[in-house]
């Protein structure tokens, strides 16, 4: 019988339990995957702690690579032995699972299983952030918080590839060096560097057209101060906690600013959007424009250790679980 990590009640990393599971035959529109690599993302922690509501028991995780070992009766797009990847499908922390065929894309040659699991959720997030939420153009200057994190490293490189100047924030000198190697022109350290001052200096006092913020409570107000008039605040995570309620007239006072909270569900609503986003991600990775940094690998049964490492905010890049 296969095993999976299950959460029977929300809470700390100790709530990630190694359970034996039963996986049946795929039904209409489904395939059964024997998974080979599973990605770890901060959103998994949001679900584990109960910040994002998902009634237990459930299997966490939203991205993985696997081999198709059975297909449903009406599935014609995939066959046995296909190597595929997915993101945004809850239940990834498992050795074997059922997945809707329409959510799977074939993994190109030249992309390893670990790399596929490390890049898909983060790459698809970076794609809609820099190509759809705000379409970065050559000559832009942008701010990326958590620039040495999984999405941050991809986003910095992609923005640089598109011709932008990147101002990033990190928590340590070590992370600043990693961010710099991965496309961040101005890596700044929280609590040490004056981010708003540097932004004004680099932009000649104007501010930036967009800030990408996955930290939330600790950075939100300073992020608004980095924006030029009618700039866009993109809040796509909250690793430091939720942003407290505030008077929205503040957006007017700071220059008629825009605020958005994007998600994959909204930006990847159908198969066509999934395929287009995946093509973009595969293209920039295979071209070498974006290099995905895997900092830690853990056995799947030790998923709790991966969450402890990620929550410590001492990790960089991507974390991968190996079934």
Structure description:
This protein is of the alpha/beta class and 323 residues long. The protein has two domains: 3-120 and 268-322, Alpha-Beta Complex (Quinone Oxidoreductase, Chain A, domain 1), CATH 3.90.180; 138-261, NAD(P)-binding Rossmann-like Domain (Rossmann fold). It contains ten helices and 15 strands. The strands form three sheets. Strands 3, 4, 5, 6, 7, 14 and 15 form a seven-stranded mixed β-sheet that branches. The mean pLDDT is 96.
Strand content: 25-35%
Shape: globular
How is the CATH topology of the largest domain named?
A: Quinone Oxidoreductase, Chain A, domain 1
Mean pLDDT: 96
Report, as a whole number of angstroms, the end-to-end distance: 13 Å
Domain Enoyl reductase (ER): 11-321
Organism: Paraburkholderia terrae
Protein name: Quinone oxidoreductase
InterPro entries: ADH-like_C, ADH-like_N, ER, GroES-like_sf, NAD(P)-bd_dom_sf, QOR-like
